[in-house]
Design brief:
Distance between the termini: 64 Å
Strand order of the largest sheet: 2-1-3-4-5-11
Oligomer: single chain
Order of helices and strands: HHHHEHEHEEEHEHEHEHEEHEE
Helix content: 25-40%
CATH topology of the largest domain: Rossmann fold
Radius of gyration: 27 Å
Structural class: alpha/beta
CATH class of the largest domain: Alpha Beta
Low-confidence stretches: 337-348
Mean pLDDT: 87
């Protein structure tokens, strides 16, 4: 390229690294070098030049199943957006929960000298930092470190969402609240469910503050629509009417709607329901389901912000983001006439 432009290799290199003006290379020579570079299809080695400045301007984003899920894809969108706004590219890898595959992806990204890692989880859980990331800049997304103060993390504020769910029902006039998905005691949640544990803690504390306790609790080891249907059907068989349900996720709520419909009951006149997650179908239910949303986009964005801010907080490296309420039509005063007729479950 230098030969084609009629300049020395040093001159060509300085022009292509944008140092021509600094070293007083003539405008004509600079223009000739850039023209030849364009004609020859020259592309600068961005990685090499950035590494000379101490950064590859790339971030590794490794998840278990987020990239292939419709439910939590906004976590990746939030991370991508903030990375791009700050001049970084995101390398995305999916392990499908296989720890060996996760390690292989990390090694491949280390070989490409990424500046840091986001290790993301589809469901909030406790996990160790991968052993081959020791000494690397990393943030856990939607996951808690198994040992305190080992790595920064950002998760939804499930505890506050549990409190908010109770307070919403109390404001509507409800004092008898039944739990679908967890039992009435602090430890009555499925094993290894961080979200369930923290949601239940918030619910129990808010009820206790009001001088109340759960009217009943129905532990479900799996939180799918059929589990919510079975638990709610058993509850309704005891004659419960004009009270309130807190379902521990929206899929359980879908089953609860079905059980209520089969019992010729309506939401919210016969039973108010409040839930968590803001599933895509929550607003499609009839009436719409009031639920507390996981802030997927904000979680992804915050993970990148924490990664780029390398200072580890002195007090608590785990940050919790508020779960906003999606107020729809599933909560009303006890015995309040339903705004729409019937409670309809989603198709399938």
């Amino acid at each position: 390229m230098a030969r084609a432009a009629g300049v020395s290799r040093t001159t060509a290199s300085l022009v292509l690294s944008d140092r021509g003006d600094e070293l007083r290379i003539s405008a004509a020579s600079q223009e000739r070098v850039r023209l030849v570079a364009s004609e020859l299809g020259y592309r600068p080695n961005v990685v090499s030049s950035e590494l000379r400045r101490g950064s590859s301007r790339t971030i590794g984003f490794i998840s278990d199943t987020i990239a292939t899920s419709q439910l939590a894809g906004d976590m990746i969108k939030g991370a991508l957006g903030h990375a791009h706004r700050n001049g970084y590219m995101l390398f995305i890898g999916e392990s499908e929960g296989d720890l060996d595959e996760e390690e292989r992806i990390i090694e491949a990204m280390l070989d490409r000298q990424v500046d840091g890692f986001v290790i993301a989880s589809m469901f909030t859980r406790e996990r160790p930092l991968p052993s081959n990331l020791k000494g690397q800049s990393a943030v856990l997304l939607n996951a808690l470190p198994e040992r305190a103060r080992t790595v920064r993390a950002v998760i939804p504020d499930e505890y506050t969402a549990g409190r908010d769910a109770v307070e919403l029902l109390l404001r509507a006039g409800h004092e008898r609240v039944h739990l679908i998905g967890a039992g009435p005691e602090q430890a009555d949640v499925p094993a290894q469910t961080v979200a369930g544990r923290e949601r239940l803690a918030g619910i129990l504390d808010a009820l206790a503050d009001a001088g109340l306790a759960p009217a009943s609790g129905h532990l479900c080891q799996v939180w799918l629509p059929q589990d919510g249907w079975k638990a709610t059907a058993r509850l309704l068989a005891t004659g419960v009417r004009h009270e309130a349900l807190i379902t521990f996720n929206d899929r359980l709520a879908f089953g609860a709607y079905q059980a209520l419909q089969e019992a010729d009951m309506t939401v919210p006149s016969d039973m108010s329901i409040v839930s968590f997650d803001d599933h895509q179908l929550a607003g499609w239910l009839h009436p719409g389901l009031t639920t507390f949303a996981i802030p997927h986009h904000e979680l992804g964005q915050r993970a990148i912000e924490l990664l780029l801010d390398e200072a580890l907080p002195e007090e608590n490296p785990v940050e919790r983001l508020r779960m906003p309420a999606r107020i729809r039509g599933s909560v009303g005063p006890p015995g309040h006439p339903a705004p729409v007729s019937g409670a309809t479950a989603p198709p399938g």
